[in-house]
Design a protein that fits this description.
The structure holds 2 protein chains of 2 kinds. By secondary structure, chain A is mainly α. Chain A has a single domain, classed as Arp2/3 complex 21 kDa subunit ARPC3. Chain A contains 8 helices and 2 strands; from the N terminus they run ααββαααααα. A two-stranded antiparallel ribbon of chain A has the order 1-2. The longest helix of chain A has 33 residues. Chain B folds into 2 domains: 110 residues, no CATH class; 73 residues, no CATH class. In chain B, helix 9 crosses helix 10. In chain B, 38% of the residues are buried. The mean pLDDT of chain B is 84. At the A-B interface, helix 2, helix 4, helix 7 and helix 8 of A face helix 3, helix 4, helix 5, helix 6 and helix 7 of B.
Chain lengths: 242, 208
Amino acid sequence: MSHIHIPDGVLPIWLWVLGFIVTIFVGIILFRFIKKEDLTKRLPILGMMAAVMVLGASVEIVPIAYHVNLTVISGILLGPTLIFLATLIVNILLAFLGHGGITVIGLNTLTLSIEGILGFFFFRFLWKWLKRLTPAVFLATFLALSSSTLSMIGIVGLGTSHYEELIHQEGKGMIGFSLLKEKNSHPEENRAEDKVNLRKFMAILLPLGFIGWVLEGVITVLIAQYIYRLRPDLLRLERQTL
Amino acid sequence: MIQLSYLDYLAVEGKSWLHRTSPKLKMIGVAFVLLGVITLRSPSELLLLYVILLTLFFISRVPLRIFPLTFYPLIFAFLFIFISGFRIPFIMLIFLKVLCGSTGAVLLLATTPYPSIFCVLEKIFPSLFVTALFLTYRSIFILLSILEETQQTLYLRGGLQWRHPWRSLINISNAFGHLIIKGIDASEKMYESMVLRGFKNRIHYRGE
């Protein structure tokens, strides 16, 4: 859910450039903690999990415009460092398939990796505490998804003034010709109406998001149970109850 | 997602002038489209860019079957209708930005074989990152073939039915679980064969 489906040219340049800078910075820090041999050995599994995430993103639940990310289960299987690289790759491929713009890749990587990394740590913590797979996976997924959705809303919120500028600048192009702008189409008294309605955006997004978090939580639990039955070694846990 | 293999087929088998154009040039072209999408703020200018891209689309003889792919990102642009408070010119601006970006990306993918794209990327980005990107791209096709096999099993177990949401949810989750396990098995085999063939942290692309 935390994937930002904002097209190119909508977010302010400083925001998406900052997204790329932070992504590179976080990537460098994370990759200092992993041995190169381990990374090379785990590249195929990283590729496979990233591909699973891309496939998951293509399963659209149309009525609520939601698609599963499978980031949490991928985070649990890959660990915090590899999930970061996996989310970067997933976002590059998704950007070319129309899920969010190419310029938004950095910000999308940050929000989606928050989901994967938090999912991994929440799961480890809850597993140690509860010793039961179902509630540990469900709560980890729910909490990770809600955290990343809130961070996504924060990012969208940072660009509010830029959207307003875009609304007001309609028709004023770089080259300077216009087909659509009407004379006095925006008198001062209408200015207030032009404000970006972020509250309305949140009012739409959060209830749909809640349905999505529960749905993805249930799907992740069922996937984890399936993996636990057939390949428990992948979850790297001592055997406990479902 | 199934269309990805068709895009791949078109990129390899296509014979138009755009297919023959250097991949580097096409990627620079996409970068310019992106620059236009970022900087242009008038619907009329974006409309002009979109018309240019549409012209390229049709003269490069890319089949119409994949044209609807360019509309797919519009699904996600609908939220902007609510953000803007139903301002038609702003919505048009956003929709045109989306269409320009998606048409540019589809044009690149439909006219450039992926080894050629990776060949260019390798010169810009770290080899480890490009290798991971390449393996992911390959894995999508491996997973799609596993998915084809799984679909039959899914159908026999009741498939996806709105009247039985819980059963559908279990079926779809088991299908994903099956995909993950099969995919990981396949990735382990793939790594072993790559090592046998002399893989050392880097894949070399011939760009053909």
